[in-house]
Q: What sequence folds into this?
């Protein structure tokens, strides 16, 4: 029976190791889920800000809030920076790597599409004057972006 104590010791170590690994894995999944939920809330808020500024530009018929204070994650729209201002930061670049592996392709496309449209506004339309009237093309681009942002916001609210 000299082998009984070491055997129980070994079994205890093995069970303890498996239990520790399981609990650590579970804690990591909970942390990742919490982080993903926090990103989802921040991204929804970011899209709400973008939507509000696009709505303002469309209702006033001028670039206005799209340029100053600007759309988060809108590269190339530099009016605020030209006046020594700082464009608001965007959580999108940081959150993409966390969210992409957790979403199905269709869900990812719904989430990413408004940010891609926002990022490319300056490719389709460009101005550095907030008082410049929206052209027909500007208005069409902003309408497309607004519809996509609204679609994503509705989808995020349902999930």
A:
């Amino acid at each position: 029976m000299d082998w009984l104590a070491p055997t129980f010791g070994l079994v205890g170590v093995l069970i303890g190791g498996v239990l520790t690994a399981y609990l650590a894995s579970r804690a990591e999944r909970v942390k990742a889920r919490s982080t993903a939920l926090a990103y989802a809330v921040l991204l929804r808020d970011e899209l709400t800000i973008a939507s509000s500024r696009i709505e303002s530009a469309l209702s006033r018929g001028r670039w206005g809030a799209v340029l100053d204070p600007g759309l988060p994650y809108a590269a190339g729209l530099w009016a605020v920076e030209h006046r020594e201002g700082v464009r608001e930061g965007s959580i999108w670049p940081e959150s993409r790597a966390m969210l992409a592996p957790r979403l199905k392709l269709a869900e990812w496309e719904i989430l990413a599409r408004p940010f891609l449209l926002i990022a490319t506004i300056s490719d389709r339309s460009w101005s550095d004057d907030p008082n410049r009237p929206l052209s027909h093309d500007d208005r069409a681009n902003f309408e497309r972006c607004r519809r996509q942002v609204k679609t994503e916001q509705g989808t995020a609210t349902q999930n």
Observations:
- Helices lie at 4-60, 79-82, 92-99, 105-119, 121-124, 136-158.
